[in-house]
Amino acid sequence: MSEEQLKAFIAKVQADTSLQEQLKAEGADVVAIAKAAGFTITTEDLNSHRQNLTDDELEGVAGGTASGGCDTSMFCY
Hints:
Helices cover 55% and strands 0% of the residues. It has helices at 3-15, 17-24, 30-36, 43-50, 55-60. The radius of gyration is 11 Å and the shape is globular. Residues 1-64 form a propeptide.
């Protein structure tokens, strides 16, 4: 997966409330959700690219705010 794929997935999530709700669910499988949305993302990809994402991208993935928290998959809420 390229950084562009990850950023494209994040952009899609930011614009799609259905994806946001799926990612907010307890135990959400980010890789499976991304795959269902047409993206090929692995857990390793998420972990290796996490440090390259801006705070705004991380916060916006699931409609989160800086006062929220991050789950183990890298997405903040």
